[in-house]
Amino acid sequence: MRIYMTEDYQSMSRRTANIISAQVITKPDSVLGLATGSTPTGAYQQLAEWYRKGDLSFAEIRTLNLYEYYGLSPRHEQSCRCAMQRNLFDHIDIRPENTYVPDGLARDPRAECAAYDATIRALGGIDLQLLGIGVNGHIGLNEPGDDFGLESHLVQLSESTLQRNSRFFECREDMPRQALTMGIKSIMHTHRILIAASGAEKADILCRAFCGPVSREVPASILQLHPEVTLVGDRAALSGLREAGLPICG
Question: How far is Cα 155 from Cα 66, in angstroms, rounded to an integer?
């Protein structure tokens, strides 16, 4: 595992974008696994800026998103599809048909998840998977206690995830309580993993994930067993790992 520490969110975003851009440049037809949420937004803005400058092209890139909230239309402003369009896809030259996000309105969520896994396999697997990490250790939306052996599946969101999501919805009753997410097995089968983390609130869970035992109660801890993991975090997020003595690059 390689760990890179940056000063702040802006520099963390730029380093994260650098790693993604290197993948795009060295393999222009890469399959990228993408995340939503606030953490990767800065990296997406940086990638879009480099595209506008002519430094990057995404014309042959294929993307697969980690999850979508079940019950949300792709046009809903809080859906993952809408967020990806707003933060990245609408600002680069990627082909719409090459961007895959689970269908939050699927009538049969099990069939939708099976089809999503089939798409991953048909594309040859994911070359680089971008992940955030939840304060409860979730990756994708695989919550504490979820089975490590699952591929894409319908998940019940934990109370801590619902509490954090509540700031995006005017009425708590309108919040989705389930999501279609890639499973831990799906994530562990990706070729390379890139984790982005920012802020002091992530310091404790990063320690639990990477200094403690592998446990279903901390889903991100399974990443200790993946052979190609890079963690990019700002000084606040990595403070605990630094104190624990893990080797960290500047």
Answer: 12
Residue-wise pLDDT for 73-94, tens only, equals 999 999 999 999 999 999 999 9
Residue from 193, 209, 198, 137 nearest 2 by CA: 193
Beta-carbon contacts of 221 under 8 Å, excluding residues fewer than 6 positions away, are 137, 208, 209, 210, 212, 213, 214, 215
Q: How far apart are CA 237 and CA 6, in angstroms?
A: 10
- In 140-179, which positions are buried (b, 16+ CB within 10 angstroms) versus exposed (e)? bbbbbebebebbbbbbebbeebeeebeeeeeeeeebbeeb
C-alpha 169/C-alpha 159 separation (Å) is 15
pTM above 0.85, yes or no: yes
